[in-house]
Amino acid sequence: MNGRRVLSPVLLVGAGTGEATCGILYLAGYLRRGGIEAFVRLYDGDETEEEVTRSLEALVARVRPRLVGISLKWFHHVHRALLLARTLREIDPEIRIVVGGNTASYWWRELHAFDCIDHIVLGDGERPLLALCQGDPAPPNCVTRAPDGTPRRLPLEYVQGATNSEDVYYSHFNDIFLSHQDRHAFSGWVAPGKGCGENCLYCGGARGNQKAAFGRAKPFLRSEESVRRDHQEIAHRTWQFRYDFSGSTAEFLQGTWAGVDLSRHSCMYFLWGVARMELIDALARTFEHVHMVLDIGCFSEQQRHEQMRRGLLKPCASDRELLEIIDRCRRHPNLDIEISGIAGLPFASAATLQEEVRLVERVISLDCLVGYQRLEAQPGALATEHPARFDMVTEARTFTEFLEYFERREPGDVSVPMLRFRDVALEAAVQRTSEHVDALARKHEEAKRRVAINGRTRLLNTAPSTLQFKLGEWLGHHRVPAKVAQEQVTVVRSVEGTSMACAPSLSPRRFTDPTLDQAEDGRILLTTLAVFEQPTTVATAVAQLGAKLRLDPHSAREVIDHLVDGRFLQPA
Description:
Elements: E1 10-14, E2 18-19, H1 23-33, E3 38-41, E4 43-44, H2 49-63, E5 67-71, H3 78-91, E6 96-100, H4 102-106, H5 108-112, E7 119-121, H6 126-133, E8 142-145, E9 151-153, H7 173-176, H8 180-184, E10 189-190, E11 193-194, H9 207-214, E12 220-221, H10 224-234, E13 240-244, H11 250-257, E14 266-271, H12 277-286, E15 289-295, H13 301-309, H14 319-329, E16 335-343, H15 350-365, E17 369-374, H16 382-385, E18 392-394, H17 399-408, E19 419-421, H18 424-449, E20 458-461, E21 465-470, H19 471-475, E22 488-493, E23 499-503, E24 516-518, H20 519-531, E25 536-537, H21 538-549, H22 553-565, E26 569-571
Parallel strand pairs: 1-3, 1-5, 5-6, 6-7, 10-13, 13-14, 14-15, 15-16, 16-17, 23-24
Antiparallel strand pairs: 2-4, 7-8, 8-9, 11-12, 18-19, 20-25, 20-26, 21-22, 22-23
């Protein structure tokens, strides 16, 4: 590389717990095709700082990375991104630490003040990150440090669009993961396009911020060929596909599915705008099951139209259009619908709150799920930056206020700063309505999931996938002592994607991991599933479990109920 210092291997991680953004998977494939040995940690279940340190120490020992990239896409991960960066700096001061993503691009000035961060990638990251790894002294889109320590922001030269993103696609899934558990955590996200053309008042990723942070004036669809490569790479590795983009058409997606059999896959589609039946029909014909999330902004039509009239909300369906879509979707027995909206948006009143409740009740009566949450403060969103315009107050606006909020959260707390009405009486009414609607939605969802069983109910093991791995392969050899690495793990997936990993021969005295059902617990679960390989009554199964495992009837029934709740067992 002309005397440059190449930074390889590379480790890419997400800044939050759970599944990281799929962006690091696109980045890893791009780096691999560019000659950089890249790895990802897709799933992170660590909660305490001690757990974070142990995990990162093991990852660094395994990969020996010269550079670690931290994906800071979501604003509520800013505290954790800094925790990861500080911990990595303490583990190995020689590692170059890079952050990127929407939030990193928005707060680049504030993040640059932390000496645990070496570079910040602004906007699209593929070419800038590869340039950093190749030792380019002037990588595009990057904030680096000048010799005197001041920030040196390089121009946004790399802005992805429809004509220059053909080389961005999934690849190297056999190489980039450090464990089978991590690869199985992938939920099937595919990005048909990027960007947003709307300026919704509540969103930090709206058109104005997209232009400022990414240099992208309008959204675009990726080429059919690159999206088709995504499907080809992951179709045999995932049980479902997830999409989140408003610009896709039935014709476009059908072109990206060409030659890939998706008839046994599930699909979850988050649709931002007004649904087109051509797209819904295509999804239902292609996938075994479809869960369609329709975002209508808010459940009050009056409030929704007022925001659209003022240019503060994307185009959303009217109540009449929404009910027509729901009715037309009924012809697809493999499709279910969730209607999503935000509570507490500006221009609320007693009348709009009554409208919200009426529409929620109507939607539930049609057996649709309801997604409902209070308006949160997002950095850069119009309502967050100028709450007084809407007679509101925000619990956080500046970088320091957001960071302090998340620093105060206890492990496991997923709350975020909120926007609330200045009028005390209105705020109280909005909160009461929100709690009422939450209760309605929760009761309906629980009723849909509930399976009434008794001793005569015939159940069947409907798990579509049962795989076996060595413990070292499943958890990753960097996490497992050699003395137990060959222990067998059986991984069972339910029809809804829930997985359980059973290690019946592994005593907790030798090794323990919170993601495993070990020893007797694992034996009980696997034996119970085996009892129901053919349709079997609950009473018969309870008797068999008593004979095989010496389980008393009450305990046997608890295990059966647990597997029914997880959709591993279903009525025959």
